[in-house]
Amino acid sequence: MRKLTITLWHKITRINTQWKAYFIVVLSLFSALAATAQSYTDTPTNLTAKVQTTADTHSRLANSAIAPGDTLRADTDAPDYSDSISVTVYFPCGSSDIDKMPDNHNSLGLFIQQLDSVAQKYIISPLSLILTSSTSPEGSLSINRKLSHRRGQSALDYLNAHSETFRAISSSTQCQKEELTTNHLRSSTNQTKYRSMRYAKMTLHISGEAKDKAGETMEPQHVETPCHSLPVQTDTIPASAAIDYAGDELPDSLVVSPIFFVKTNLLYDLLTCLNISVEVPLTDRLTIEGTYVNPWWRNVSHHKTLQIRYGAITPRYYFKRSNYTSFFAGLTVGTGKYDLQWTRRGVQGSLWTVAPTFGYSHVIGKNWKMEYSASVGYLQTTYCKYTQVDDTKYGDIKVKDYPWVSHQLKTVFPVSLNVSIVYTVNRTKHIKRHEQ
Q: Residue 417, SS3?
């Protein structure tokens, strides 16, 4: 600072007296400010802090027992390998079967291959195992909770069955399961995004020591980490559908469950046979269906008649809890009357049937599904034949054949063949946070 002042003074001596006085004042102020700054940085408090820091540094070096000439080395407790690997599999609506989506086997195979390659080079120490599963908003909340659990279990069972390395890890590490449902997103999410919500994701956090280290004969150590301390991220749910939660509160949910199904048999419709069926759920798998068939038309001039009144009741059992979209079996009991004529000759009678029913149903759209079923069973009918006579004093009449006795037929017969389109009538219930 003094040298700078002297240098500036020599410069000033070459300037006139007025400017000299001006520069003298500026230099004085500059010197005062510099002295104040220097005194501030060297206050007793700061000097004490500097001394304390230096002493702490010397103390740490002394405790580390580093002799002169030694080389500082990195921490030998650090693992040679540390990483996270994950795999995500997807499912059709209402299903927890991994085989239904062909790409799942490729994804799981790559996951197993990556894990096995790590196991060949390192002694693996699993840190955590996180299994996240989810469902799309279709169906009721209770059904979706069970479906989410089954999807996660399917992914876990597959990996345990196809990878010895993974089986050893899962048997020694506590698995954190996050079973998600998205019913609360039903009204705010486009249906095109539902497919990405039907998934199960396995995330494995691992570390390892190299097997080729000289002199190491250590057995792998399995460390159990409290899984709840590790955050789980599921990026498959669309960001546009995300909802912020305040603390641990749950959002209000919309629970959608079917009240009944209304259906019509398209094969009967092609034959202009009026028909309607109503199916009512009783439990998650058990339903009861009522069917009414009533084609009622007649063409006297062409001697053609198709008149049927038939009703049936069918208890049903679905083999999977998948919102009534799976294979099913039932027992159909029906009764009715009929009048069938294609020429002048015809037949009238009554019937009743008992027949087992087998079928399958699947979703084709929101609130819509298709159903295929067939019934073959016992049929008993009592009938009589007649001939149509025209231009009588009573008009066109049907005269029973002589002798006027009824005939009876007992046989095994195809009772029904259905290709039905089904509309689901749902009930929406708003569940508050405290109810959940």
A: strand
pTM (two decimals)? 0.45
Could you tell me the CA-to-CA distances from 77 to 12, 74, 216 in Å, in that order?
Answer: 67, 9, 14
What is the token pair recorded at 205? Answer: 């956090």
Over its C-alpha atoms, the chain yields an Rg (Å, rounded) of 42
Q: Cα-flanking dihedrals φ and ψ of residue 172, to 5°?
A: -115, 0
Residue 421 confidence (pLDDT) above 60: yes
Rounded CA-CA distance 360/426 in Å is 21
Q: How far is CA 409 from CA 332, 335, 381, 404, 406, in A?
A: 19, 14, 5, 17, 10
Q: Buried b / exposed e across 22-39, counting CB within 10 Å, b at 16+?
A: eeeeeeeeeeeeeeeeee
Residue 424 makes CB contacts below 8 A (sequence gap 6+) with 258, 261, 367, 368, 369
Buried b (16+ CB within 10 A) or exposed e, 104-113: beebbeebbe
3-class DSSP assignment, residue 46 = helix
Evaluate if residue 174 carries a pLDDT over 90.
Answer: no
Assign 144 to helix, strand or coil.
Answer: helix
Integer Cα distance of 119 and 125 in angstroms: 10
Token output for 154:
């399917």
Pairing of strands 175-179, 122-134: parallel
User: In the structure, what pLDDT confidence band is assigned to residue 49 with cuts at 50, 70 and 90?
Assistant: very low
Cα–Cα distance measured from residue 235 to residue 122, given in angstroms and rounded to the nearest whole number: 30
pLDDT at 232 over 60: no
**HSE of 96, CA atoms in CB hemisphere, 13 A:** 23
Asked if 344 and 387 touch (Cβ cutoff 8 Å), the reply is yes
In the sheet that 199-210 helps form, which strands lie side by side, from edge to edge?
81-90, 199-210, 122-134, 175-179
Tokens of 119: 């196991």
Q: Report pLDDT digits (tens) over 81-131.
A: 888 899 999 999 888 999 988 889 999 999 999 999 888 888 888 888 999
CB neighbours (10 Å) of residue 357? 22
Euclidean distance between CA atoms 327 and 319, whole angstroms: 6
Percent of the chain at pLDDT > 90 equals: 36
For helices 164-172 and 103-121, angle between their N-to-C axes, nearest 10 degrees: 80
Q: Minimal CA–CA distance to 273: which of 371, 382, 417, 401? A: 417
